[in-house]
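Issue 218. Parser rejects a valid record. Input:
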Amino acid sequence: MTTSAKLASVVLLSSLAFASGSAPVWAENAGYRVAPQQGITLTVGSKRAISYYTTNADKACNLTLLLADAYSDAEKTAASEPVRVNLTVREGTSARVDSLEGSLAFACAPAATAMTIQPMQHVAYSAVRK
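Output the parser choked on:
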């Protein structure tokens, strides 16, 4: 095996090793998977969301979501009051919370062992006339 072939195989293998964990967590299609009582902070347009869930005897996800304006050092007060949303999402089902600038979809795994959160952007659609 030539030196250039060895070098190429080392580069290829090392790039594959790093590629598996290199996807950014803020990618558009990325979903987040959380365990019970594990908090997560998300951005929904200009809003900030903090969420966690607990389980109950019915194996449902009891979701708590706090939605507020982003904090700014320039403005010491928020433009609006924060909102708290409490939802029960049954195992194997999902729920969606919409804001003016985006949505969050919450899916409860079987036996409420995990919850998947999918941020979604609102995009206007205009049909092209022929």
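Fixed in the parser; the record now loads. Residues 16 and 38 are 30 Å apart (CA to CA).
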